[in-house]
Amino acid sequence: MIERARIKDLLRNNDGLGERGDHDLNPGFMCKGELRPAAVMVGLVERADQVTVLLTRRTDDLEHHPGQISFPGGHIEATDAHAEAAALRETQEETGIDPGHVEIVGRLDTYVTRTGFTIEPVVAFITPPFELSADPTEVAEIFEVPLDHFMDPANHHRHEHTFEGKQRRFYAMPYGDYYIWGATAGMLKNLYDVLGSSVDKYPRVK
After folding, report:
1. Is 206 a domain residue?
2. Does some domain include residue 107?
3. Does residue 203 fall inside a structural domain?
4. 3-33, pLDDT tens digit by residue?
5. Does residue 19 fall inside a structural domain?
6. pLDDT 10s digits, 132-162
């Protein structure tokens, strides 16, 4: 089982004040206009034999990023005290996971998307068993991927496509039939930089 204390220490050293974004692999590729604040939950689920990352597949009719793989999350509302509150609220709304199963342990760097969002990734442990209830208006599927998959740099790819007549590059970390890319993969790369590159092997209790 993963050592919570060790992960907390590593996250504590990452103060969450850095900035990453779609512009990382595309210098000068910045969003035009006002950025909207958002928060997501990077949930680490403690299963009996391994730790997994909780992810969702968005429905195909959403305005932003339809059909894509994402973390639970959304806009930071005026009623949210902070990003952590927004991430907890959105996670419960989208997946049905009760906040009582969630222990927040830190943040990753702010992530800026070309679609106009500035995202605060909140990292938390999620302790099973918990009930899932997907919001059918936003979430087509809830699933988990072993954390080890994202901690292996062999699974970190750089892909590209043509956008507005130019080649744009982005991170991708496919897993089975799931194509995990863009902002979600970028934040997972940040998680790897904070955790995976700090130890020879992802820490587990022997």
Report:
1. no
2. yes
3. no
4. 778 888 888 877 667 899 988 898 876 666 7
5. yes
6. 999 999 999 999 999 999 999 999 999 987 7
Q: What is the SS3 assignment for the chain?
A: CECHHHHHHHHHHCCCCCEEECCCCCCCCCCCCCCEEEEEEEEEEECCCCEEEEEEEECCCCCCCCCCEECCEEECCCCCCCHHHHHHHHHHHHHCCCHHHEEEEEECCEEECCCCEEEEEEEEEECCCCCCCCCCCCEEEEEEEEHHHHHCHHHCEEEEEEECCEEEEEEECCECCECCEHHHHHHHHHHHHHCHHHCCCCCECC
Whether pLDDT at 54 is above 80 = yes
CATH number, position 182: 3.90.79.10
Q: Based on the structure, what is the number of domains in the chain?
A: 1
The whole domain housing 161 covers 4-198
Task: Please state the rounded mean pLDDT for residues 28-50.
Answer: 87
pLDDT at residue 166 above 60?
A: yes
Q: What pLDDT shows up at residue 203?
A: 43
Contact partners, residue 189, CB within 8 Å, separation at least 6: 156, 171, 173
